[in-house]
Design goal:
3-stranded antiparallel sheet; two-stranded antiparallel ribbon
Length: 124
């Protein structure tokens, strides 16, 4: 079964995350091509970016095929089942993830990313 690791980077990891998300050949090893330090997963063979504060170790559940890009490249979304979660000890506070300390980075599209500018809570 194919495996993957979702590296949950902080704002400081932005350059490595951006470099590793480029268009690479299927046989390419992004970590080597971009000179990004990596660590092997605890439960899966896939590596993660060594500097990220958190990572989800997964096995592939499904590949969802999307329409090709205008230049004909295939696109797909990978859906994974989480087998384990690695979180840096310093990002745990009172048994919970300390999200402000984590300073998560989100990839929006293409080369656009967003960092943590504010925190909103929505009562239920």
């Amino acid at each position: 079964m194919p495996q993957l690791v979702v590296s949950l980077g902080s704002e400081a990891d932005g350059p490595a995350i951006n470099a590793g998300s480029g268009g690479f050949a299927p046989s390419a090893i992004e970590f080597q091509a971009c000179q990004i330090a990596s660590l092997r997963g605890s439960l899966v063979w896939s590596p993660r970016i060594s500097s990220v504060p958190a990572a989800l170790e997964c096995e592939v559940y499904e590949f969802v095929h999307l329409p090709p890009t205008p230049d004909g490249r295939q696109r797909r979304v990978v859906v994974g089942r989480v087998l384990g979660i690695d979180i840096a000890d310093e990002d745990i506070k009172d048994g919970l993830v300390d999200e402000p300390a984590l300073r998560p980075l989100t990839r929006l599209r293409d080369t656009e990313h967003a960092g943590r500018q504010r925190r909103d809570e929505s009562p239920r």
